[in-house]
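DM from R.C. (forwarded with permission)

"hey, sorry to bug you on a friday — could you get me a structure for this? deadline for the figure draft is monday and I only need the backbone to look sensible"
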Amino acid sequence: PASYFRRHYDNDPKKDASLIRVAVDPISNEIVSSVRIFRRRISSGGNDASSSNSIEACGIGEVCTHPNHRGQGLARILLHDAIRIMELLEGGGEVGEAGRDEITTVSCSLLHASPSLMAVYERSGNYESVTTRWSVVTINSSFLTSTKSITTINGDELTYNIRNASFPDDTTSLRPIHAKYSEQRFGGCIIRSDQYWNEYVSEELGDSLFILVADSVEGDEGSFSGIVAWLSIRSRGGENRYQLREFGADTEHITTSLALSMLLKFAFHAEQKKKNPTSAVEEVGDAVEESLELVLPSPILEEVQEEKGSNKKEAEKIKFIDWDAGIESDNDVGWMYRPIVHRGSMSNDEKEENVEDKKYCNDDVNISIKEW
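My reply, with the result:
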């Protein structure tokens, strides 16, 4: 629906209408195909999220063609146009980002394609597929039906509270945890500025993003109180299957296992209340007749398995997973990338060409490519 495109554009801190490329039917003057270029800064792996360990990238998304105009190669033409633009782009740093002046050109392009369209991007844009590892686990029904309070939870003799995220108040705490938990560990992870948290994450996740707050825990530098983890889940592929959409933890103050066990129960309960808003149940287990499945990134599951095997006390907290039910692989091969080679500074003629209508005419196609 139109609202989907509008929301993604309005919430993007790097939105740029000139990077929405459209094909226009010259007879009806209607838009018949569209491609959008997203500007992002992503981690290239390393021990910090500084400019030396990050690159400027562009995503390709929201590719669509009117049913009456499909089969004419319009998406391919728009993709070639987008690649040409990415080769000329400069700048892109956000206000307040470290190393803003050092990131001046686009180094790679990313997109996510359905299996039926991957070959199209391989042929038309020289994109290559990469595999992201996901696993499916069964959530233990006894964990779901526990009568223990899920608003304030005592773990390790300490008190933790769970609440919805609040922006921009929580951003100063969430940003450094995300940088250490995700950006510094995984190449290709989006570097999140304050703007990205406040304008994009807050709006896209809404009331599904839950925060785990510790009243007082002991860390490497003494006593600590504040945000130690966050999580968001969404329904995926069936009524009883959910995906871990968002997760991060301050592992200096809490284990991944403990953070997941607390936040998951609260999130499952919230999802059931959404499905049954008039229900008076207090616990998620009261509203669930069958076991729930959780799809989560394999590296996070591997952290949980490592904690389970290394610490007997920690293993007691990981009973939220039904290990006897087994682990299913659910890898995603839809992410694709290609390097972008910068063609130098854009001349005045190229700048004019970038916004000027481009006409494509042959026996099958008669359209113009322009900015949205």
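R.C.: lifesaver. Confidence is low (pLDDT under 50) at residues 93-103.
me: no worries. The longest helix spans residues 256-275.
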